[in-house]
């Protein structure tokens, strides 16, 4: 058997090979990153400083904003670095580290969306018991429990990814490291890695999917039985922002990971990756701020306080 040279660095294909596009893309994604940090940080600051927003619903929203900032910070700075240097080289250790944080933030966001669905279920279907069920200790435990489970799931993938060897100079068809692309360029037996992806993806993903969407079946049934049109409108408004974020995140992730992986689909893969890894953390605070009267009122109060200083 011919000896194969073990590689310790990988190559990212990036978004474009055209030199003329590197600077425009750098400026566009730098602007997107700054807007993402600003929007999500503003949400967190409003929730922390405004007593009207210190409720379980906004505690979960603030946690979602923190996850969005972390998610975008794992992918976009690396992309900006590659636009600037045009080398696109990344060490195996750095690649696997990036994979861990991408998995952690992505899976944590899925889990948090499920927790937020449960919060909406209790608020609409069991309003008289809301404060008893969704007290602060329960909220913190729900978030911490979800984060611990997501940390463990991400760590499992990373532990087995560290056992892989790489001897192919074929670039990863993405602008960041991800498990499927990493397995494609490995010269090791990846059966256990693929099996873990399938097992954890189906078991954990199915549970989170059911916990996210099943409460809305009961919620919609409860809303339709409400006598007052104003009450129905208020109930729909409290759910619409969350459902919009859920459909955007699930839609872009599912399209990115479950559509055809043919070679001629690499450009489509990159567009889908940009949507869920870059644009979703940007639009989440916009959706919640533009569709939420309480946050808009809180923002106006904050601006008025700043102008009076």
From TrEMBL:
PROSITE patterns: G_PROTEIN_RECEP_F1_1 (PS00237), G_PROTEIN_RECEP_F1_2 (PS50262). It is a multi-pass membrane protein. InterPro entries: GPCR_Rhodpsn, GPCR_Rhodpsn_7TM, Olfact_rcpt, Olfactory_GPCR. The chain crosses the membrane at residues 25-46, 58-76, 96-118, 139-162, 191-218, 239-259, 271-290. SUPFAM superfamilies: Family A G protein-coupled receptor-like. It is found in: Cell membrane. GO terms for molecular function: G protein-coupled receptor activity; olfactory receptor activity. Pfam families: 7tm_4. Residues 39-288 form the G-protein coupled receptors family 1 profile domain. Keywords: Cell membrane, G-protein coupled receptor, Membrane, Olfaction, Receptor, Sensory transduction, Transducer, Transmembrane, Transmembrane helix. PANTHER family: OLFACTORY RECEPTOR. Belongs to the G-protein coupled receptor 1 family. This is Olfactory receptor. It comes from Hymenochirus boettgeri (Congo dwarf clawed frog).
